[in-house]
Amino acid sequence: MNNWINDRVSLISKILTKGLWNSNATILMYHRVADLKYDPWLVGVSPENFEEQVQVMREYPVISMQQFVNNLKEGKLSRSVVITFDDGYKDNFYNAVPVLAKAGLPATFFIASGYTGRQKQFWANDLDSIFLTPGPLPERLEINTKQIQFSYDLGEENFISKDPIKQFQNWIAWESSPTKRQSLYVEVARLIKSLPPEQEEELLEILYQWSGKKKMIDPANLMMNENELKGLATDGLFEIGGHTVSHPELSAFPSNIQLEEIRENVHFLETVINRPIQGMAYPYGAYNKETIQAVKMAGLQYACTTQQKPTYKNESLYTLPRLRVRNWNGAAFKKRIELRLKLGV
Ligand SMILES: [Zn+2]
Questions:
Q1: What is the pLDDT of residues 151-160, one digit of tens each?
Q2: Cα 21 to ligand 1 centroid, rounded to whole Å
């Protein structure tokens, strides 16, 4: 009960100190528009819910990222909504873009170019197959390579029967883990984020071998190819932005690697779409002082984080907060947007 009161008091004080006196513009963050069997990172919005959300958005001033950045630079931030997508999934192109185009709503797509047109899925999809699908796993995981030392005891929780699968399907990675199998998933995810790409691939291979499961790539999990990116960029409504090459947790890497990841990504995208890249989104929202320096050195005007708050007038262009859009239906989405735009929370 005390927590409930504390939460309410902190909400009201936020509204009074910040929300009511600001224009409460907000940048929406999407990842995938698809029906996902497992979604521990809450990256999916179903195509049906996305359609409903777009209908709701038509009631609000939706502006392009470029307009938003200009408004912020000129100190004229107005009550507005910006739509962004991270990573570059194919489902953005086939499930989201037609709906946005029909509604005439602008959006920005931040692309991790190391995945462009490749038969390579994001590691989270591999971890879903390894840890969250039924069947037993060995009781102990022990990894000892030159760079990676890792061990974990699953013990008797190495097995999931058919029944608890539902529980697994609704599990969210940053909430408490119902069994050791999810705890191990989280530990491995933490490790992967900080690895360079070659070691990431090596680790995934080790994990597949250990699990006895066969690596299968679901085409639905792939990212856009060059032609799809070109197609996207030729529509004046849509902007392409950067999201690094290999999608590393930038702040875990030295500054020269950070700069290389950002520059190579920008260069690749500019060559493909034949127009300048203006900004980027940090993978996992992770950045430090060196990251911001690298963004400036790469000639970008803005960068988005995954921090969950509205944008205030004095916001830095290099740490723009966003709102993670969940798989809400139209009514739930509207409620969330209203809170954000009217009350600033
Ligand atoms: Zn990402």
A1: 998 887 776 6
A2: 32
DSSP state of 316: -
Expressed in angstroms and rounded, the spacing between residue 31 Cα and the centre of ligand 1 is 8
Strands 81-87 and 26-30: parallel
pLDDT, tens digit (0-9, with 9 covering 90-100), for 88-119? 999 999 999 999 999 999 999 999 999 999 99
Expressed in angstroms and rounded, the spacing between residue 219 Cα and the centre of ligand 1 is 18
Domains and CATH numbers, the chain: 2-120+220-343 (3.20.20.370), 123-211 (no CATH)
Ligand 1: distance of its center to the CA of 279 in Å? 14
| Partner residues linked to 280 by β-bridges | 242, 303
So what's the pLDDT on residue 143?
A: 92
Contact between 145 and 225 under an 8 Å Cβ cutoff? The reply is no
138 C-alpha to center of ligand 1: Å? 31
Alpha carbon of 112 to ligand 1 centroid (Å): 7
- Rounded to a whole number of angstroms, the CA Rg of the chain reads 21
Cα–Cα dist 132/125, whole Å:
10
Which residues, other chains included, contact 231 with Cβ-Cβ below 8 Å and sequence gap of 6+? Answer: 93
**Span 227-232, average pLDDT:** 97
Q: Token pair of 125, please?
A: 């999809």
- CA proximity to 250, closest of 301, 193, 306: 193
Whole-number Å distance, alpha carbon 129 to ligand 1 midpoint, is 19
Residue 221 near residue 233, CB atoms below 8 Å: no
The tokens 């409930």 sit on which residue? Answer: 4
Strand, helix or coil at 208?
Answer: helix
- Token couple for 227: 């032609």
